[in-house]
Records
---
Amino acid sequence: MMHVVVQPRILRQAAEKNSNPVAASERVSLPAANIVAVESGWNIQIAAPGLTKESFQLKVEGRNLELRAAYPSTEADGQKRLRREFGEGVLSRTFQLPDTADTTAIQARYEAGVLTIHLPKKAPVKVEIA
Amino acid sequence: MKLIQHQPATNASRFDQFVDEFFNRGLNSFFGGDHFASSPSVNVFETNTDYLIEVAAPGLEKQDFEVKVEGEFLIISSEKAQRAGQETDGKYLRKEFNYATFSRSFRLPDSVQADQIKASYENGVLNLTLPKSEMEVQKYRTIEIE
């Protein structure tokens, strides 16, 4: 079977790094992401329902943007689990940023279960002609 | 007595859902390098007095949801009207989730009081509380030891 992975031109997802060693009991999953090109740069939307904004860790390392968020591990007392499809373990995903992104001015906002990361473009450098 | 997810065999929205998924997938999906989520994940818990259902549908507003009981089925769906200008704000380079149109159904146990179901939407999760009938609750009462 042909298996071709086409990498998006601008934002490529970097290979999952082992920079965050996790306990064996922690289930790490890859959150779904939408990437939207806007005039001022890019918006990365991460589907992360049921968290709070304090749950997220975002860091830039070189050209990688690393996202990590942990769900609270405890299940409420007296609750019997009949089905569990989300809300457990750790969400982790790394994005490789384009050279044209201004990594010093990244902004993030958590709303309705979606973390939106705004990645601005670098201001163009103008060369004065003497 | 279990909450069993029900997939209706004939559902008009099935086709729409297929079309929706088909056209929202990137070219990558044809080659097996991508995935797309449009049907929300669900958690179901049971306590002595209630069933609790959590539906993960990030990026919506509470008025986008419809929750109804039809016969023995609980049907949770969303219909988010595209806001004017929303799609033209930017160009999608990658699209892996969109919960704007979905429908999930559950077969309700007889013990649920269908007219007492409560729902709230918070942090992208629709929380439903389905109280059990008095009869069912009494089965679980603890007996004081004198």
---
Amino acid sequence: MTKPNEPMRMLAPDSFRAVLSRRALFQLGGAAAGVAILAACGSDSSGGGAATTAGGGADTTAAGGTSDLLSQYSNVVNKASGNLAMFTWGDYNDPEIVGALADSTLGVTMKVDYYPSNEDLITKLAAANGTSGYDIVVPTGPYIPQMLQKGLLQKFDKTKLPNIVNVDPQYLSRDWDPTNDYSVCKDWGTTGWIYNKTVITTPITNWKEFMEATKGAGSGRTSWLDSSPNVVGPYFWQDGGDWNTEDTALLDACEKFLVDEIAPHIKSFDSYPSTAIAEGQYDLSMAWNGDARQAFARIADAGGNPEDWVWGIGGPLTELWMDNYCIPVGAPNVEGAHAWINWLLTPEVSIKDLLYHGYHSGMKDIDKLMAELAPDAPRVDMIFFPEDQVANMRTGEVNSAQDRHTAILDKMKVAAAG
Amino acid sequence: MTAAAHVPNKRRWRGPKWGLAIPSFIWYILFFIAPIAIIVVYSFGTKDSSKLVPVDFSHLGFHNYSEVFSKLFFDVFSGTLKIAVFATFLCLIIGFPVAYFIAFKVSEKWRAILLGLVVIPSFTSFLIRTIAWRIPLSANGEFSKWLQDLGLISAPLDVLGTKTAVFLAIVYNYVGFMVLPMFVALDRIEGSLREASKDLGATRSSTFMSVTLPLSGPGVVAGIVLTFIPMCGDYVTATVLGGTKGLMVGALIDSQFRGAQNWPQGSAMAVLMIVMVLLSLVVGAALVWLARKLLRLGRPAIDAYRSRPRREPKPSRFPDLLQPLLGIWTFLVLLFLFIPIFLVIRHSFNGGPSFSVWSGKYSTVWWGGAPGRTASGIPMIGLFKFDEAGPMLVRFLVIIAIGILLPLIWRGIKGEPNRHLGRWSVLVAFVIAIVVNGLSTDWYLSIFQQAGVGAGLRGSFLAAFGATIISVVIGGLCGVALARHPGKWSTVMMALLFLILVTPEIMDAIALAGWMQRLGGPFNSDTLGIPFGMLRLWVGQSLYASAVVTLIVRARLAGLDGALEEAAGDLGAPPGRAFRQITLPLISSALIAGGLLSFTLCLDNTVISSLISGASSTFPVALISATKSEIKPFWGVGAVVLFVMTMALLAFVARVLKKSGSSSGEIAATLGGG
């Protein structure tokens, strides 16, 4: 099922592929090499739950001597069966992982649907109220309390998620779910922009310049994210302000600015601009770092020159968002959902997925993992950010201003149509 | 819609007049009126996103309505209306000559072929056809580069994400719905009327003006209604191609419900949209009435003008030009209709990872080769370079040529033609050519393994099949009742049907999703082996489809004399038997037409299906969600598979009709929903 071109598009370095194949990672019951890593998955087919922690055995040295690091992680893989339906963000998993590997490793057939915003996800779950048919959803952290309040999410059976210990503690126990009873970090990222420097000749280094470019050289050829916090955020970040403000006067000013001054210049509200960039629709796009990273591959696929395009991270302040795996109430395949989430928390699968979607997956010691599994991954500067940049990133809150945010985006859409 | 013919009131039917419509009434009250009523109530509430149903009812009022009348939203409403009116007008202008040409200017055989060609594109997934327009319109696409090479444009095309793109695609998507009813109306005009007009000395143009045009009136009206209403509520086209500039009411309402979580405002907008559509139809009808009135008042003057002494009309060269001109026009329109189909087929073989971005290479893993591996390591030269289009074309043509020549050679040797060889050899050669060229590999091989696509295709067919059966049964009965037993109730029913046709899909979707969950029972858990998701799809898709079937059956019967049933009744046949032996055969073609139309409508149903059913339940549901990220070429493959299966079904029906002795024109008209 892998297409000839997909290796290129995965942006995975050859070294990683070599590591993967050498370890015979996904071949169940394969030859001696690597079996230890997946011992659990071979033997634990009874489903059950409790962790049979694998790895660490002496056999692993046979795998090529690089597995000391991996053996420090929990590598439990539980089997499941049937269909597994995931409702998630666009292009958010390596197609190989949701396709052939989920089938051969977990024993489930995946169906994946996509949404462009948290509101979209919530509407679908709320309208169906437990009958949506999805087993896994991936909301952004601040939306979790609202979803809990509406009774849309169910509690994890944590005995089935032993690999949760692999997650860096700083990405656990967040405000929205302090005990991680309902959610666990899938990955996190930030918001910035990507532009065609042959058209937008003045470099963009902060949100103010981004706004100027939207109104100026990029007018009518600019896309913003189709997600309300993301359109409101830059207005406040450009002056180092608090994007979670509930002050109505500030929000009024924000609305006025965005609706009157920005909206008429916007070509599309597009949460995944990478394909449209390759088609030649935009010269400037607000984008999440992973999608912007995929854009470079797609531009090359379409015969364009990726060198013409520049990625920039928001400043002086910008966003830090974290998406989380959750299980909705009424999920038909709860067993499978746990198995999937737990599997994605094994370091190798996590890194393989990361190389596709391009977001920090929250594994502990991720730099060491990358150094071992994918030392020459391209454009890692779009995945991992130095401390000083992370220091400028702010997490969102869902508070009384949320309704206002959605109303602002709504008005912007209408004003943009004008 | 055509008015019911006068039916003498001498019935043997003993029940209430609306007896046959009882299933429809129950169905619509249960699955349309009740859920929609709840949504209409929402429109008086206030948004409260902390609740499961995000509506607060403590302060009921009209504030949502007054907000819609603010300048912002009002602009979108008027913009949509403008697009719909212009696009309908354009469809009329484009479609009328085509319908006229097919109805009067070609032989019986060509008529069937041409009508088939008009109908076929609409049997390809609506969604994929719309998405396919991204290919030629894209700034970095080949078309844009050709235009630049020719010097026609200086900068890359900048059409995607504009009103122009929406306008183009909307005209494209609906022009077929305009041609068919017009053709059916024109086709019913007795040739003798036109002959008579000419015999009486009328010129071609005056025959056209005073005979053909007035008689085509009902078809034009039907065409306008069939195109204008769905255009107003169109969600797919604007979302896929529009960007911000192409925002239309359907998409705006959708974003109220989904993006903004503002259900009250969304439902207020939906109510206003329905009012807007109804009002504009009323205005349209009034204008037509006025025009007729004026024409009648001005009649004497026109007649006087017409009968002014004139030179004997020279045999003009105009008629000679008319036919080829119409032919060229029809050809161009057909070409236009097929552009996206060709693109979908080509891009389903795309060697690159994206559907809309053509890689310049065909996907050519040798047939049977392990997916993911390139062709065997043997270096290939010339004709055997498998990933180049040129040699591939040569191979393709050679094999097809062999297929064509084989029967001829056979005849040369044996002296007599071989029937089977003649019938099958080209087809077999075609299949071989595809396989040898590796075309059917890769995306095609993997289609049923792709998450969502295979299951979506199966789901689409099952859902459309069930919904069609429901629609044909309740719609057929109701259509008979409307045509044969009209009364006060039929006004109510017609109003209801009309309401179903004009209600925006997203409103139905939200209403039904909540309502079915509330109804529970078989809608929440699998009962009698029927998955509840499937049951929901059957019900949800049957609403619009059954309304269409009802109208078709009613129109068909209204055009037929009720005397046969009368006679059966007079001869003592009980109503059941009269229905079985007389009415059913009379409406069978309408039932088939309605069934086919509803089948395709159900196959294309996107918005309702995506909200009421589970994950990737049908092909369009999975595809619309895939448009949120990169669209892979296997979606094109799915569309082609869907298309081939639908065409097979269509061919089967055409065959059955042919056996029953209908003329090709009638068959085509039947298939087209006349």
---
Amino acid sequence: MTEKNRSELLQGTLDLLILETLQLEPKHGWGISKRIQQLSSDVLVIQQGSLYPALYRLQDKGLIRSRWGESEEGRRVKVYRLTKKGARQLEAERDTWRALSGAVEAVLAASQLQKA
Amino acid sequence: MDRLWQWRERLRRLVFKSRVEREVLDEMQFHIDMEARERREQGLDANHARRAARMDFGNVERYREEAREARLGHGVDTLVGDARYSLRLLRRHPGFTASAVAALALGIGTVTAVFSLVSSTLFGALPYAEPDRVAWIATSWDGVPDGGISPAEYLDFREQLVEVFSHVGVYAFGALNLTEGDRTERLRTALITEELLPALGVELVRGRNITREESESGASVLLIGESLWRERWDAREDIVGDTISISQTAFEVVGVFPESLRLPEEIWLDSGSRVMTPLGIDPGSVTNRGSHFLSGVARTAAGVSFERSRGAIEALAQRWVADGEYPVDMGFEVTAMPLDRFLRGPLRAPVVAIFVAVGLLLLIACTNVAGLMLARTDLRSREMALRSSLGAERRRIVQQVVTESTVLGVFGGIFGLVVATLALAAARATMPDGFDWQNLLQIDLRVVLFGSLLAIGTGIVFGLIPALALGAVGGRRLVRALGSSSSGANQGSPSRSRWRSALVAAELALTLVLLVAAGLLFKSFNELLDVDPGYRTDNIASTRVSLPATSYPESSDLVRFYREVTSSLRARPEVDDAGAVTNLPLATRLGDMNFRIDGRTMPEDVRSPAADWQAVTSGYLETMGIPLLEGRTFSSQDRADSPGVVIVNQTLAEMHWPGESPIGARFALGGDMTQPETAEIIGVVADVKHSGLTADTRPQMYLSHEQFRFWNSGRAPASLELVVASRLPPSSVQQLMTETVRRIDPNLPLSEFRTMEQVRAGSVAIPRLLMSLLGIFAITAMLLATVGVYGVTAQVVGRRLSEFGLRMALGARRADISLGVLRSVAILLASGVAAGLLGAFAGTRLLRSQLFQVDPLDPGVIVSVALLMVVAALAAGMLAARRAVRVDPARLLRSE
């Protein structure tokens, strides 16, 4: 797989994960990053900085929106939340992802069989 | 709500760029601070904690940059992002980019270059005030159109059509000699009537127009052109009212007309008439309706429709005929047509044919580039599949590919404008002199606009093809795409190579259409060259000599001069023969003249005896090698005071004396307008193609220059074309003619030196141009199509290489393999040829008016160009197939 493809793959995945994280409650950037690490049990190692371009991309697509809020310590911080469009997109991507992973699963199982 | 916020946010990012930048940095800083705090809580010291947090975060600058790019977002900004992405991709594939841009630049450039001709000839207003109101008046005889107007007819138009035409003007062209010191310049002169300039709506720069009295009396007043005014009189303000000497006559300058003025026949020329002077049509002395040598224009009166004015002028002509103004039924008609149609009508068919041809070429170039893109996007098919499965909408993918093709189109357009500029410069340099190529072939705003729109439109259209082919691989096909990844991505999916094959078949079809068109024009042009003009074109040169009335006041002076010049030329050993004539065949239009045959009453149903006329000196017919069929030619015994004599052409003889000899018959010529009043036929000569190689030969008579006297001046023709038959090179002949003329009269200017070969070539310049252009287009198209065939075959071969290896390992012969490959080429060809033939059947009709003695569906042409294309395509396919048979089965199988 080329470098390009890997980053494309990661980009798509990261978008999905961000939407997933924001589904429960609005969060600031660091909170999203912590939550993703937590949810994926540290399997998906995402460089933390790559979160921010993704956030802007999603904002631009109208999937999330942001406002200025305060952190627990009272620092000014940007808080992101899911839009209606984002919620719909999340549903759709979940289905695609499940279909895809199911298919990949099937391929892998089949090749497993052939080997056996 | 969400959407509103989205747009507000986008606007904010555009307007408050630096603040948004700072916010991003703040946000990232917050993240790193939080991360560091967490490390500290886990027990690291502050320094280490901060370093670890930075490390985990990654390169801040890079993410800021990426965030900035992400912020560029959708809409216009996505376009910028896509364009930038495309630029990166194109830079990464310089070979592909160069060939695509080159093909597009060639296509767009040639279309743009041709468009400049279309734009300058077919579009835009004519350079007259309210050009829609200007009518061209023409007579026709027996359905032969574009005849001139006679003075008597003009006077009737002027007096009897005032309700429909506010102005009626007529004119003819002549020449005057302007002498300054020992230099004499021949000035192209328009002989005009007083209403000509108002009819065209031309305003003078200085002074006044000529008056009706001046026009009728032929007064020595002069309108001079702005350019001459600047050159000769330094644009002197007080030139109006001055008397200047031209052709040794004192003319009073009454006005200056604008430099841009062109009379209708001059409209495409690089310079118009230099001076204008009254024609001198005196209503008191004009009695006969013959002598149709004037050009006429009229301006419809305000509020009068064109149809009404045309109706009025046609009705007037019918009344003349009904009143018996014309002695016999000559099928005489007068019509008025929009000047625009008269000037542009004949150009439309060839110009449109060239434009369509070059459009086809661009289509072929586009198809080629679309094929290239398709081949290359195969490499990216998995990337596309992944992107689409990860949520990239199909629309986005199409948009990305189309953006890429548009970027290519824009580059193609930029270089295309360069190509167009160069092509036009080259064209201007090689086109025949005299035409206003500077303006006809120039890149103006309209052309640039057209080229730009064309480039962008082209980019979008040819991008849609690969985009749609790619888009067919949706998310659902991802698994298939992933599954095929092991066999390598660079050979493309079968469905896409079907797309490519379809593209190449389309290319072949378009190419065949162009080839057929070029083939037809080639055959037609050769037919044209085979036409015998009826005179010698080799080793004959001519030049025009005009004698001023002041040094040559009497007809006898004119006659003496030409007799002396021709005989002293003839005396030179290098000269075979010499003569002079009023109008060179194939170079000018002739006027016609009525005649009555003595002792014959014309039956009612026989059409008028009228014939084109030429005044010639003795020796002219011999010099031109026009064969004498019967009787004799002019001799030095035929003088002004001897009985009138005339020589007729074969067409005239057969028309009025079918099956018998006309020798000895007598003519009464055009009433009181000419001398001799009667003439005896002394000879019959073979026909000469005068008004064009393709035109029907008209009845024609040759009158002796010594006897011929003009209707208005009563003088012999003062301006003749001197023709010389000599084996010397043209430049020496020119020198010889100049020397001989100067020895007799050192002040005389000579102009329009040309060989008869040039005259003949000039008469077929447009067919030659059309043929050459279409030939070039067709050959380029065939090259592109051949490359296309090679490409698609190579692709098929590449994909099936392992299959071929296997088959050869199993005992298949090389011939079988290459036959298999060629079979796919043959299918491609068959569909291309079939579609191309349909296209040719439909399209060559456009050319019908440009073809001479060739049917638009000439089977010989169609079969031979189709064969040519089949052979070229098969050769290209064979070349590509070589790779298939060269394959070493053993190695190939091992590598699997």
---
Amino acid sequence: MSVAAVEPATAAGETLLKVENVSLSFGGVRAIRDVSFDIRRGEIRAIIGPNGAGKTSMLNVINGFYHPQAGRITYKGATRRRMRPHQAAAQGVARTFQNVALFKGMTTLDNILTGRTLRMHKSFFWQLWRYGPALNEEIEHRKYCEEIIDFLEIERIRKEPVGRLPYGLQKRVELGRALAMQPDLLLLDEPMAGMNLEEKEDMSRFILDVNAEFGTTIALIEHDIGVVMDLSDRIVVLDYGNKIADGKPDEVRSDQKVIDAYLGVVH
Amino acid sequence: MQSGASRDPEGALDTFPKWLRHHAQVRGARPAIRLKDRGIWRTWNWTDTHESVRALAHALRTLSIGVGDKVAIVGANRPALYWGITAAQWLRAVPVPVYADAVADEMAYVIENADVKIALVQDQEQVDKILSIAARLPQLTHILYDEERGLRTYDHSRLHFIAEVMAKSRAALAAPAMARELDDAIDDGRADDPSIMLYTSGTTGRSKGVVLSAGRSVAAARDTVEFDKLTDQDEQLAYLPLAWVGDHYLNYAQMFVAGGCMACPESADTVQQDLREIGPTFYFAPPRVFESLLTRVMIRMEDAGALKRAIFHHFLGLARRWGEKIMDGKRVPLHARLHYALGALLVYAPLKNVLGFSRIRTAYTAGEAIGQDLFSFYRSLGLNLKQLYGQTEAFLYVTCQADGAVRADTVGPAAPNVSLRLAPDGEVQFKSPGQFVEYYKDPAKTAEALTDDGFVKTGDAGIFDEDGQLKILDRAKDVGRLRDGTLFAPKYIENKLKFFPNIKEAVAYGDSRDFVTVMLNIELASVGNWAERNGIAYASYQEIAAHPRVYALIAEHVREVNRALAREAQMAGAQIRRFLILPKELEADDGELTRTQKVRRGFIAERYATLCAGLYDGSSAADIATEVTYEDGRKGVLAARVRIEDVDVDLPVSHEILRERAA
């Protein structure tokens, strides 16, 4: 019996997001200088670079939290200069944070349910009552969240307050909340920071599964080069706000500029 | 509510598919199987179950499964896999459950040895495993899977999604002629059909396929359903491995005969929570599960406030005094009963509720020896915990304890309709209603396991207590005799020692010697805790193990074991005369333990030969120098002078005296 590796239906296709000549500065600090790259539908795209390279700033630009001074961003064919985070969210961009940003006192399930907020349409009036359309709506959302809980294998901690969970699991819950938005583009800010080897392996498996199972496009920032090389389809390398390389993992790995940046050659 | 046997007076229901059809007709609306899926308990009643099994049976037949073909079942406890077992039996094919955590190689051995044609598996993990070995398994034609995740992109020429093939079957079965033919196939099933093949764990050599017949399986289950009065109101959580005889008997066979319900947990991690939600009425767990539950309760009580702690301990003390007597229906003064009732309200019932034990009528433990304190703890709370002794070859039950006649140190008298005897060398032998037919394709091993008059040799040594209950001592080949002919069962003595929290490992010697001696390992966690409270400073295991006050502490435990041994007629001569505490912990890495943490007595005796000699030449200390392997693989030499201590021996107590004392 052979496992013919049928190409996933969502194999990297048209361009989902295009960043053109973006520059961002805070006062005199130039965080991003004239960076251009694109993200194709269905791929796993990594943004890497040493500390302070501008990775998180780049992510914040993509989801509208920062507004670049120059450059254009084209998302789903529409070009824009300014976009607010909630507009980005409404258009299917979800993200996780470098430091876990969950409601610590709420359960895993409730935290994931918050990811559905944008998709709840019944008015405040209906939500006041126990029964009625709001309840039906919530049941639908709960169903979706349960799918995610099943997917991420966190049934055991469904009713556990997240503040009590170990860090690796909190990261997984955060991924769950981002998935609850049914995003087209998922931004992961250092999903594996601070994890031990086993947690990293688990998280890598989930990222690959999300990409394969839901066809979600993923852009991730990561410190751990080894993980990035194995996970991503293409990689952008930033250093001091400049893009110094862009390509497939093998190309990037052998790029002299990347090696210099990581080994700390004086600029 | 009727018991199984009275529902089927003629014994016409001699296969599980016949029981399935019977329940669908008689109690179609009663729940048969549940699964917690996506956070919600889904329930299939007997009618649904019958219909599902029927669809799956048709699907298997379409894939050309017929009489005598083997169908492997691999995965966790899921309704679809249980249905697969019944569906195969419907077609008179033979289901072969395989341990889901087996690595691909082990799985290949079973699938090949059993001539499996079709594998019914849970998910991608199992599919991947089987695909990786598929090249070596030419007779394997198809794989059916229950969970679709990750498998959509696989080549589906020989791979099928169970829900899909079942839907197709349902459509096909809409044709009455097709359906009638399949339904009639149930009546072709005969009592001597092989009903299931269970592979032994294979700790002693290659695992063997134990073939159990339909009629015998049903007969065995019928007896114990009667014995424990199980009915269609009973419910249990099916969390034991599918390939283990315990699951197939307790969850599958018993519930099929009783008409009760089995609930499949959401995942292996959520068993404890699912247990609370389901509130089973029948429960089985090995002793270590009960032990870890108790530890968790005690640790959490440490965090409670002073008042709650005081209440908890007061009522636990009360339960220890009266709880078991009340449960066994003995004479208990009224004030104690009232006091106990208050305890039930305040402590026992809430505690059982937290553990998911509120509705349990019958609970069993088996597999290893259970400590008196641990056993009594649960019983004193009002949990009807009993012991059984069994094996795959018996289709589980050989002995079991009846309500009201329960003890920690025995496994009970022969189960209903089981004949039990001891061979001259002390080996337990039995004939049981569920007795196996043969080891698959291994007549030599089958003949080896049976006596000339058809009894099965268990390989375990035991003795009968004065009230007819069996006591399992050790593996028969490990049991020896002292020079004066006294029976010496090392594991029996070691277990008694290990029930003390301060003793981690014990190795007993005495075969062909004048008396019994033991080498001990202390449990660093609890002895360290004790040392701290008593102001004893120490730097290493070696140091604290040699401390005179630790020796005094352990000597008291050994004396207590001697007192217990003195009360047993056959064991009184095997009391411990001398002991020592080893300067290092026994490690699997050093070859002193097996990977399953069992002591290797012979090897240890060789390795610590000087200590062994010291134990028997009367000296008060012995020197040892031995090589040890550190965790990072480096080797070092450990040299020590080890104290050897004598212990008092108790006079044997005759049973007349004991009985007088009790009266």
